[in-house]
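Input (structure):
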């Protein structure tokens, strides 16, 4: 599995082997992709950095909500399963 990278223009997560960013359409051939977690290039601009941070924050909030929902479902399941075995 290839590690994801970031578009050198908009900062969104893309596969390293993409020739163009599917989000903004900028060619990735002329520049290098930045590995996720590495500092972003200054040329990407403040707006792209803010957009990427917002997208990452939104994604993390969504994942956290999904995990909370799964935990609630599992608790209900475990409680019902415990009653069935008694």
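Output (sequence):
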């Amino acid at each position: 599995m290839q590690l994801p990278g970031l578009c050198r223009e908009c900062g969104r997560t893309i596969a390293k082997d993409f020739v163009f960013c599917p989000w903004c359409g900028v060619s990735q051939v002329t520049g290098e992709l930045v590995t996720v977690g590495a500092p972003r290039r200054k040329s990407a601009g403040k707006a792209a950095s803010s957009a990427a941070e917002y997208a990452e924050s939104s994604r993390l909030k969504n994942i956290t909500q999904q995990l909370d929902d799964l935990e609630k479902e599992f608790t209900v399941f475990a409680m019902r399963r415990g009653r069935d075995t008694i």
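Notes: The longest strand covers residues 4-6. Residues 65 and 71 are 10 Å apart (CA to CA).
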